[in-house]
């Protein structure tokens, strides 16, 4: 994929219950690599202490090219933001072997 | 008093006093896997020893109840409770389905009071878990051409707790009492202790939801008490109709009265995203679970006695 | 809150034993949202392997406005740095729906 | 040799040889929850069967010991050991309180040697856990107008291990022997195995703290050996004074000699931030725990025999 | 059918149907720690009751088999399978070593069929675990002046599973049957249930590796079936030669046929980084483990019967 | 160490099985502090779900000076990239008490 040059780090924090659906969506968008950790937190939708059942959050981080990162953010806002506890943020990173991420 | 109730109170009080006590999520998972498998295995073993001709009519009746309960509560929640459509459907699903933890407490209660009950009750747990989820999702979304039946089936039948309950049931049924025997060291002998720890954790969790009740006000509290009571009556009547013993009738009433907090929340969260999960969990965990465990079960027992005509 | 425009990511890594106290302090400062993960690590105060008891670290990340981020850092340095294993760092991020963080 | 000691050695040696063996933190938590609840339940059951008139004087005496021990060691640590005030107070609190793991090993030792002891010993564990924490915090901070008594009470009485010990005790006491019986499959039958795994993990943990000893030098090692020995004498004398059996005296001596590594570190870390937690854990886990488990307990047994006048 | 096999199938089917069922990693760790220690303890206790003069020749023969098996399979994998040198060495190491899970299933199978076997079999598990790792690493790297023997020893003898197996063995041997008895509540009584849960998890894990098989094609599948069959014959012949019972011969054949998926992958991953870990796990977990558990063990039993000349 | 002034955050995501070796290497390079979390993910070498055995990833984050960060990246690329599942990325951060990281 010919993505713009600046590699981006996209971080998504959301409910763990949608992990499977979300990963499928991301794959369709063209995400080839990601890293997930199990986390807990607080936000507009209250405290999510991660102690049981559907109470936990996941944190997904994706290193990718600029245009893919824009697509991801737009897609998430449209599909998930209204009904799910979710935040995303994005920052510039530098990588070695950029072909691992921009391809 | 049954010690397991005291474990629940210990957790509840510790959390309300803001103690640092907390169990790691992995332990909660482990305990619930053990509970679900044990209950499934027990039910399966009974299935293996009983003629299908006795069981089949009961099974059908119980499944019908599983479909009817949410259909009855939905209009009430919508009209009387003025909940949004999605929330009403979600609550109907939660209360139409069952809580495995509540079931286990009911069984422990009967054991503690040395009251007999039909041993195939775990089968009813399995049967009641799913129908209300299907009804709830359809109530929320309607049936249209776009209804994704495959996803619906996936969400209802392949959730974690169903797989474990049903899997345990099938294994117990396949290998029978003698086949299950070597597993008893882990699954049956430790059952009461596992339930005690599980209730300790439930106490800790409940406390959080109790404190979120304020946000949702009186109507939710009323439904959280009213729905189980009404459902218990239906369950008790059905139990009597099916010729169950007083113990069995108590269990069926408890199952009807109990509200899911594991299988249903997960399925509804993905299938009906517009429903507010905090609302239904506040009701199910913040009101109904503690009510059933502390007050409801003995009440449903009296109800079963009354209906069966046994003098109190 | 009328915070300066550039959204910041503040990351705090510290002893898990102070989680409750620290969260209370952050709330008072005006932090509305945060995400926590359980981590382990090494630093000036030795290895914290997170295997038991009070031996673990937490990693708190907060997306917020610039002036709040300054306040947090100043507060932490003054209250916790001398007696607790703690590091913090801060970077620029871009967010969608900035009102979720700057409000 | 009792196999549980060998589990401790296995963990210790594996870690010293830099094996990859490590148990997940959740397992450590699970094991310690089981240990604490079991010990609490056992103590509570005994409480239920014994007249308060016998217990009360013993309870008061043991609590007094809990307050006195840290008051005795503090000046020594400050003057002789030249530790900073906060560190001396922290060490005094650690050594004045008790280690539940060490207690369990002592009980296993007596069981293995078939030596009788008063069965209400777990009650003493609960009673000894708290006082030293209070004394330690006050020694470090002094009592001023600003003393936040509420926070102090919270830190001492609502820590995880106290809640579980005390909760277990109250539940055991409320339901008595027959009530606790159904829980025995998880709590009592697996106790020795749970303790073995716990000690395996303690071996792994201890090894890390052993290697941090170098940093703190000889004085810490001397206190890590001297304090338990001195405290054991006090504990043994008190046991004898209270008319305890040789077994009971051994346990009381062990409790006095043991140093906390769960409840106290957590409470002191928040209440006395200036104290260096690595220092007190190096002493308590790197020296005193292995010393007590491997050498101390048999020694305290001999001490108890001597004091009671029983010919060796 | 033995219920534990059904647990394996439950996990396998649940995962293939993409159920949400998943056990937390900490539980997997806990279950495998229990399995390893229990098997070690059992072997050690037997060691304590048997004369060294009987055991020693068997032990030597089994160790020799552990060195020979990978030496035999390596050239086949290299020439016939056209695997890269590192991958061939890695596969040889996996198949030369043993799978503790498969061993436990074999023992459960014999118990279920009430077939006797020599009770010191766990000793063979311990003995077979290590040699193939050493051979595999040397096959991959060759022996040069730079060979880091210390690191090699560390990787092979201080891996988690070896430490637990060997540690359990030594403890069991040191304290003997009566010493181990108090631990039976956790280690022996729950064994079958722990194994059932472990196999449930193995089913979930296996499913993932089954689906990665496609990538590696027919040759890997052929080796995944052929190597265990060939090794089983060698194991069965050796068992017969050593005068083992039919049950014992079945176990030794199963051990030879089983492929490691815990100790070897970890050791090879650090020592032979060029080997593709996905390849060897696809073979060991995606083919050989399910084959052995579902089909192989009864087959090896028939083989043992045939070799021993017992009429079928 | 006289490191260039801009503090960097280096993030390494790799197989948990090499944790011990990697930490030893990092120590030799001069890394004094780091934080580790247990994560899972997907990349060129497939899915690493972290459910058992050698299937998990770790995420190491290191705050350090610019020249050390360059050294780390060069070293990792040379020693680990060919045989292990590994990505690294790097970004600018601001810290309080920079002497904690640049020393
Ligand atoms: N300002 C924030 N900084 C960091 N994490 C946040 C923030 N706000 C929300 N989160 C995380 O995102 C999740 C969903 O947020 P929300 O949709 O606001 O409930 C929360 O549970 C937190 O884990
Ligand atoms: N340079 C660093 N990079 C990343 N994390 C660090 C660094 N230094 C310290 N930490 C983390 O912060 C915790 C406290 O650090 P310290 O106060 O230096 O002991 C450590 O246990 C690590 O988890
Ligand atoms: N683009 C990416 N964004 C975030 N994490 C990644 C990315 N690619 C790979 N990873 C993580 O790094 C690990 C190793 O990557 P790889 O070497 O590509 O298999 C994966 O298992 C993921 O956890
Ligand atoms: Na119900
Ligand atoms: Na003490
Ligand atoms: Na083999």
Automatic annotation (TrEMBL), chains A, C, F:
Highest taxon in the source lineage: Bacteria
Pfam families assigned: P-II (PF00543)
Name of the protein this chain belongs to: Nitrogen regulatory protein P-II
From TrEMBL, chains B, D, E:
Keyword tRNA processing: no
Top-level lineage group: Bacteria
Keyword Thylakoid: no
InterPro entries attached to this UniProt entry: Sbt_1 (IPR010293)
Chain segments annotated as transmembrane: 55-78, 90-111, 123-140, 161-180, 186-204, 216-238, 244-266, 278-300
Keywords, ordered alphabetically: Membrane, Transmembrane, Transmembrane helix
Pfam families: Sbt_1 (PF05982)
Protein name (database record): Sodium-dependent bicarbonate transport family permease
């Amino acid at each position: 994929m010919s993505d713009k040059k600046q590699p981006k780090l996209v971080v998504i924090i959301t409910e763990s219950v949608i992990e499977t659906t979300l990963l499928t969506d991301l794959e369709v968008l063209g995400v080839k690599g990601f890293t997930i950790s199990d986390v807990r937190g607080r936000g507009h939708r209250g405290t999510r202490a991660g102690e049981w059942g559907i109470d936990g959050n996941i944190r997904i981080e994706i290193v990718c090219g600029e245009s893919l990162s824009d697509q991801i953010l737009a897609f998430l806002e449209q599909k998930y933001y209204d009904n799910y506890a979710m935040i995303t943020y994005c920052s510039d990173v530098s990588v070695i072997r950029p072909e691992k991420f921009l391809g | 008093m049954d010690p397991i109730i005291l474990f629940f109170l210990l957790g509840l009080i510790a959390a309300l006093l803001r103690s640092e006590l907390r169990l790691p999520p992995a332990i909660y998972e482990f305990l619930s896997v053990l509970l679900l498998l044990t209950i499934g295995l027990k039910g399966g073993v009974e299935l293996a020893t009983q003629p299908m001709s006795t069981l089949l009519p009961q099974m059908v009746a119980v499944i019908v109840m599983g479909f009817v309960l949410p259909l009855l509560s939905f209009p009430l929640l919508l009209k009387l409770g003025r909940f949004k459509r999605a929330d009403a459907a979600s609550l109907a699903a939660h209360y139409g389905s069952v809580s495995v933890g509540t079931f286990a407490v009911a069984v422990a209660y009967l054991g503690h009071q040395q009251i007999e009950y039909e041993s195939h009750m775990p089968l009813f747990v399995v049967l009641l878990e799913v129908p209300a989820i299907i009804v709830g999702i359809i109530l929320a979304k309607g049936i249209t051409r776009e209804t994704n039946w495959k996803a619906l089936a996936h969400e209802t039948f392949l959730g974690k707790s169903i797989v474990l309950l049903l899997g345990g049931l099938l294994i117990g049924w396949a290998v029978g009492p003698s086949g299950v025997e070597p597993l008893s060291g882990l699954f049956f002998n430790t059952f009461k202790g596992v339930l005690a720890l599980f209730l300790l954790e439930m106490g800790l969790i409940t406390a959080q939801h109790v404190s979120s009740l304020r946000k949702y006000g009186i109507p939710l509290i009323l439904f959280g008490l009213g729905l189980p009571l009404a459902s218990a009556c239906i369950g008790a009547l059905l139990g009597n109709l099916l010729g169950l013993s007083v113990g069995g009738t108590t269990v069926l009433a408890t199952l009807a009265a109990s509200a899911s907090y594991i299988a249903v929340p997960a399925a509804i969260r993905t299938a009906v995203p517009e429903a507010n999960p905090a609302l239904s969990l506040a009701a199910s965990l913040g009101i109904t679970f503690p009510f059933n465990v502390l007050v409801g079960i003995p009440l449903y027992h009296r109800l079963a006695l009354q209906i069966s005509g046994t003098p109190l």
